[in-house]
């Protein structure tokens, strides 16, 4: 990673705030950083812009984060924690869903999750450890979807669950691309994709459901 004025300050660990006001300030600074990096990319985002977006003085930002790299580290850790939390919640929710209902939940999952991890793609593109981050995020996604599938269809073995999870994950990404116009689409194509996903999961999970 290129070292610039945002990453060349003295090497020290980020300050962990003890008071609620400090924790709130860190939340605001990280939210601002995530917004900017999602909009402009990691390299184009500066510490001064992060502070300004958060309505804080740049000295306040440097008090908690010695450089932009430490901000990125905190965001990556936060995004991975969000993925773990959301996929765990998905597995709990799957206990009450039919395969068709689970298909609808899954197909929208990335769309609703994206705003909470909006800067993760930009961080993965910029960092030297991007492959490790990408593999970690994909690993959580596949494991989380597979866990939800096995809750919905308890007779499903783990290997097949992971295979189905990979198919579903790619379908989720296609829908996301359609909705943000990054993939070829027509007005009714997303609904057709949802229908396809319902039929696929109903067919694959039905033999492994318990009555």
From TrEMBL:
<dbReference type="Pfam" id="PF00440">
    <property type="entry name" value="TetR_N"/>
</dbReference>
<feature type="region of interest" description="Disordered">
    <location>
        <begin position="1"/>
        <end position="20"/>
    </location>
</feature>
<dbReference type="GO" id="GO:0000976">
    <property type="term" value="F:transcription cis-regulatory region binding"/>
</dbReference>
<keyword id="KW-0805">Transcription regulation</keyword>
<dbReference type="GO" id="GO:0003700">
    <property type="term" value="F:DNA-binding transcription factor activity"/>
</dbReference>
<feature type="DNA-binding region" description="H-T-H motif">
    <location>
        <begin position="46"/>
        <end position="65"/>
    </location>
</feature>
<feature type="domain" description="HTH tetR-type">
    <location>
        <begin position="23"/>
        <end position="83"/>
    </location>
</feature>
<feature type="compositionally biased region" description="Basic and acidic residues">
    <location>
        <begin position="1"/>
        <end position="13"/>
    </location>
</feature>
<keyword id="KW-0804">Transcription</keyword>
<dbReference type="InterPro" id="IPR050109">
    <property type="entry name" value="HTH-type_TetR-like_transc_reg"/>
</dbReference>
<dbReference type="InterPro" id="IPR001647">
    <property type="entry name" value="HTH_TetR"/>
</dbReference>
<keyword id="KW-0238">DNA-binding</keyword>
<dbReference type="InterPro" id="IPR009057">
    <property type="entry name" value="Homeodomain-like_sf"/>
</dbReference>
<protein>
    <submittedName>
        <fullName>AcrR family transcriptional regulator</fullName>
    </submittedName>
</protein>
């Amino acid at each position: 990673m290129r070292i610039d004025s945002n990453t060349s300050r003295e090497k020290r660990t980020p300050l962990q705030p003890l008071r609620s006001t400090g924790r709130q300030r860190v939340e605001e600074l990280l939210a601002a950083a995530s917004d900017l990096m999602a909009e402009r990319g990691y390299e184009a985002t500066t510490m001064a812009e992060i502070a300004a977006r958060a309505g804080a003085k740049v000295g306040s930002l440097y008090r908690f984060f010695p450089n932009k790299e430490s901000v990125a580290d905190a965001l990556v850790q936060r995004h991975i924690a969000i993925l773990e939390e959301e996929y765990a919640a998905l597995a709990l929710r799957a206990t009450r869903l039919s395969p068709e209902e689970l298909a609808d939940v899954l197909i929208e999952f990335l769309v609703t999750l994206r705003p909470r991890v909006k800067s993760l793609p930009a961080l993965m593109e910029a960092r030297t450890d991007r492959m490790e981050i990408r593999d970690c995020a994909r690993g959580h996604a596949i494991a989380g979807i597979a866990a939800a599938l096995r809750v919905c269809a308890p007779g499903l073995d783990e290997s097949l669950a992971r295979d189905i999870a990979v198919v579903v994950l790619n379908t989720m990404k296609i829908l996301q691309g359609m909705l943000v116009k990054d993939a070829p689409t027509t007005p009714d194509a997303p609904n057709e994709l949802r229908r396809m996903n319902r039929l696929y999961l109903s067919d694959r999970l039905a033999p492994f459901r318990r009555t």
